[in-house]
Amino acid sequence: MSTQALTIEQNKKIPVWLVAVTILFPTAFAMLATSETNVAIPHIAGYFGATLDEANWVITSASNLSCR
Prior knowledge:
The chain is mostly helical and about 70 residues long. The chain has one domain. The chain has three helices and no strands. It has helices at about 1-10, 15-50, 50-65. Helix 2 (about 15-50) runs antiparallel to helix 3 (about 50-65). The mean pLDDT is about 85.
């Protein structure tokens, strides 16, 4: 019974690199998407005939909704 418990404990170990990659990739992609959106704000505002503040408000609202 003790060897079975030891085997289960060994299977529960998760490599540190896997945890790091799991956190790093989504964070990096979120930063990239935010940077791209910030660069495109003037173009988005011009396309819809809105001010920069209005376009920024809509983008912020949409990004907040997508995080939920």
